[in-house]
Amino acid sequence: MIVYFISGLGADEQAFRYIKLPNVEKRFIRWIPPQKRETLKEYTTRLLDQIDTTQPVTLIGLSFGGIVAQELASMIHCERLILISSVKQPEELSPVLRFIRSTRLYRLFPFRWVKPVFSKVAPYWFSALSDRHRALLKVTIDETDDTFAEWAIEAIMLWKGSSVERPVIHLHGTHDRIFPVRHLHNYVPVKRGGHFMIVTHAKPISQLLQKYVKPALI
Asked: Cβ neighbours of residue 52 under 8 Å, at least 6 residues apart?
């Protein structure tokens, strides 16, 4: 069985390093450089080359990767769509993010400007508490391409939602500060999980994924 994983903004497959899925072939969608003024849908269309649609497709998207996964699922037949630490529609963004979205404030502060500050405050917002988790988060942020990050932030802010026919399984941490659960609906809670729970709560997430990702269910 093949499962496609889509990491968060700027991250690579290392985000899923602690996830255990026996008897599953993991394939990781690679981020590609966005083209000038490219829309999210146009960008996502170019990712389709990485998916073998002659076989059943299961997508697992993390954070921004969850939004991209929904776009992909609106273009191809997807047997199973699982979101982790993401949102299913713009209305699930917090009031603060919706305000930033409506006013376009994010355009005043390019990622390359705020990156050093963001790197320092990220452990709080992502709930990365141990030294090992903070170090991994810092490496992820430091290695994030500024141009890609600025394009992705714009894509998130302009996203109007996707038309996905299949039911969506949404795993979300109860202590997520980026996408607070009080603004979500129809999600599977991960107790005390923050936005970095793919690493900090890899064991319970793995157990949940093993429950949902089964050939018999597809």
From this structure: 2
User: How far, in Å, are 90, 110, 113, 199 from residue 140 at the CA level?
Assistant: 25, 18, 17, 12
Could you tell me how many residues make up the chain?
A: 218
pLDDT range class, residue 109, cuts 50, 70, 90? confident
Return the percent helix, strand and coil in the chain, to nearest 5. 45, 15, 40
% of residues, the chain, pLDDT over 90: 79
pTM: predicted TM-score of the whole model, two decimal places:
0.93
pLDDT at 215: 57
User: What's the per-residue H, E or C state across 69-123?
Assistant: HHHHHCCCCCCEEEEECCCCCHHHCCHHHHHHHHHCHHHHCCHHHHHHHHHHHHH
Other CB atoms within a 10 A radius of the CB of residue 207 amount to: 10
In angstroms, what CA-CA distances link 91 with 98, 132, 185, 187? 8, 34, 10, 14
Name residue 82's beta-bridge partners.
60, 169
Q: Is the pLDDT of residue 216 over 50?
A: no
Residue 93 has pLDDT above 80, yes or no: yes
Dig out the tokens for 58 from the structure. 């299961």
The residue among 108, 58, 99, 102 whose CA lies nearest residue 79 is 58
* Closest C-alpha among 215, 171, 164 to residue 194: 171
| Sign for the pseudo-dihedral over CA of 183, 187, 189, 190 | negative
Contact (CB, 8 A) for 205 and 197: yes
